[in-house]
Amino acid sequence: MNIYVIMKRTFDTEEKIQIENGIVNEDGAEFIINPYDEYAIEEAIKLKEKHGGEVTLVTVGDEDAEKQIRTGLAMGADKAVLIEDEDVENGDQYSTQELLAAYFKDKEVDIILGGNIAVDGGSGQVGPRLAEKLGFNHVTSIVKLEIEGSTAFIERDVEGDQEIIEVQLPLLVTAQQGLNEPRYPSLPGIMKAKKKPLETLDLDDLDLEEEDVEGKTKTVDRYLPPEKAAGRILEGELDSQVSELVSLLKNEAKVI
Amino acid sequence: MSKKILVVGEIRDGEFRHVSFEGIGAAKQLSGDGETVGVLLGKSVSALANKMIHFGADRVITVEHDNLSQYTPEGFTQALQAVVEQENPDGILLGHTSMGKDLAPKLASRIGSGLVSDVVSMEVSGDDVVFIRPIYSGKAFEKITVEEGLTFATIRPNNIPALEKDESRTGDVASLEVDVKDLQTIIKEVVKNTSSGIDLSEASVIVSGGRGMKGEENFKILDELAEVLNGAVGASRGACDAEYCDYALQIGQTGKVVTPDLYIAVGLSGAIQHVAGMSNSKIIVAINKDPEAEIFQIADYGIVGDLFDIVPKLTAEFKKVLA
């Protein structure tokens, strides 16, 4: 089976975010594999364990992503591709779609797995966009996956309800929490990962011009929400706290 | 300024999701002297079309087909693409719901368009619009402009106001024939976990429980509080993992993102996973026995104490005041 995972290096959103002049300050920040992509990597490795084949990780980013790619390889993926986006102007989800589609166009693919969203940008667009561009079926937000022959049996999370779906390969799916528990890389896995192939591609390698991948939208500013004034912790007898709270919600906050 | 904006309505269990009307409200801001056109896709939807007009759409286009009886990416993309080709709009809006998140990027890819996801507000001046959307799990925001092509966006429920409903508004409802075919995705079954009642993502009051609830049976006191406030009950991941309630109630980065007017957090610590799903609520009340709990950092009002004492008293007090 030819199994691919599209993964992204992201800022760890457990961290404090600092923004200066519209730019997120990344100094000293912790970077991780996007947590939803970790589910995708785990599921890809499980598919390989069951059906055989090869797992390839594909990332769009810069050379700093090698650390996260090596972690994915240490989990059990076989090889990886880094598509460099430094020449992409105003990169947006359209740009990423075009870069990935150019990479995949001559590949034999059974399934591509990705995360449901990335915790940094949070748009969740790239999976369905890429599937459409490749002419594949897609199923987003999956919590269960079984493949028999060329048919996938899937449970999809729909805002708390579950859809039971049957769909044909080739297929792109995006992982929701609950799909699996990602494994930790083993020590031998980490040693092996250092020698696994990592191919780096740029626009020229993909036969793309800068204008082919220019974004359709542009981020013009980023900012932190205004700092919230410290909340009021009520004091006194419990009964009077309760009546004070109700009165505040009614008369001060005016939400009831 | 004069633009034609399509708003794709969403119907669930025979009723509109309110975000459909919020989309019309947003389109009215964008369209200026132009036109706001409602779009309804489904097996049998034209009877509902007038409601989009009551909420401000100038006219409505319906596409009805047996293959649209439930949402599938291919079926709805085929139908919506046909509407887009007929209407040649300047913009398209959908709700940032399970359907919108799935359909909008597929259509954007097919028609080579940009797309701004999960918009919570807009700054419109003349022909220009700046979309504002949360990033980093709601810890920050970004402003986005459209550089080329369609103004295509999904909007987060409960953030952009709908217009007042006015049943005297009239407008044309036209159907478009589309041969929706070759569906590859077969939905065998839908397992409903969500109870009837108020949709969490659209509720104006949410009462939410965490691990401090200590058991499934104790969620009853949250139900009672929510009922008095005409609200919905939610939960943290911790409470769901502990099987106190169904995952359908989960609010957070995984689960639902909510923006109610009033969010009452009961016995939950305020982990980032959860806060990402509710931090933009207008007013947050925290009830927790641990004064150091992180939820107090983002709360507008807090009571430190035993939730099993506080919640029933609170329910009684609301009953009294709202009677």
From TrEMBL, chain A:
GO MF annotation, one: electron transfer activity
Function: The electron transfer flavoprotein serves as a specific electron acceptor for other dehydrogenases. It transfers the electrons to the main respiratory chain via ETF-ubiquinone oxidoreductase (ETF dehydrogenase).
Organism: Salipaludibacillus neizhouensis
NADP is among the record's keywords: no
Protein name: Electron transfer flavoprotein subunit beta
Stored InterPro entries: ET-Flavoprotein_bsu_CS, ETF_a/b_N, ETF_b, ETF_beta_N, Rossmann-like_a/b/a_fold
Stretches assigned to coiled coil: none
The entry's keywords: Electron transport, Transport
UniProt domain Electron transfer flavoprotein alpha/beta-subunit N-terminal: residue ranges: 21-210
CC cofactor: AMP
TrEMBL record, chain B:
Cofactor note: Binds 1 FAD per dimer.
Organism encoding this protein: Salipaludibacillus neizhouensis
UniProt-recorded name of the protein: Electron transfer flavoprotein subunit alpha
Xref: InterPro entries: DHS-like_NAD/FAD-binding_dom, ETF_a/b_N, ETF_a/FixB, ETF_alpha_N, ETF_asu_C, Rossmann-like_a/b/a_fold
Domain of life: Bacteria
Cofactor(s) the protein requires to work: FAD
A GO molecular-function annotation: electron transfer activity
Gene3D superfamilies: HUPs, TPP-binding domain
